[in-house]
User: What shape does this take?
Amino acid sequence: MAIIPRFYMNAVVSIGVMKEKEVKWVGTGFFVLKPLTSNQAIPFMVTNKHVILGFNEIFLRFRIKDSDELKIEKMALYNEGIPLFKLHPSKDVDIAVIALNGSYIEMNRIDFNAFDLIKNALNSKRLMENGVEEGSLIYMLGYPMGLVNEKSQLPICRLGCIARISETQINEDMSILADIQNFPGNSGSPVVTRPEIISIEGTISLNQSVLIGIVHSYYPYQEELVNKQTGRTVEIRSENSGIARIHPVEYIQEIIDNYDNL
Assistant: This one.
């Protein structure tokens, strides 16, 4: 029984950078479409700012159309010093978007799958209107800790739930909070809802899987080790609290809607 549409999984790509003359897989990206007409759309790749900033180029790993073959292809981030990506204007929103040239997709024969931002996504307001609340189940799709299969493009799928979603939370933190373990490499992972077929009587439930946002960080738990004699902190240990921060879809939409103006 399929719960996540297969093309959602295929829309996720691993992002690598060149380190010590070798491609190291450091993050996750995913393809989205901005529909223009019934048969025209603009393709984009979405990831986090911190995944791509500081590099002149990145590497994408994807499946070749009509083939089981995988390909690693370089993608330039600058053209004569001009960035080929757009960043969300807020320093607190960790999202970067790259418009994809149709010829790049055709030339590299990419087996292109993407989230349609009208059909396959809901902003936070519409999520709450459709019954998504604390406890609603979600999936995160990405490549934690460089877990990239040699012969498969498929991302790691992890199950979690919404920990806090409210207008107040989003206004304060620009994020939805989720109870889900994310690790280095998950940066840029898309998060989708798990369809709900049951709900408490008198409430509504979202019975489809839709894109709700992008993972960008987690809240760390920090503990200080203090020297008994001096009373001074000698070490701070940091651990993953398991609470992930997810920028909701509207922040992706803001960049794409104003792409030419940013």
Remarks:
- The mean pLDDT is 90.
- Residues 249-257 form the longest helix (9 residues).
- Residues 6-220+240-261 form a domain with the Thrombin, subunit H fold (CATH 2.40.10.120).
- The longest strand covers residues 22-37.
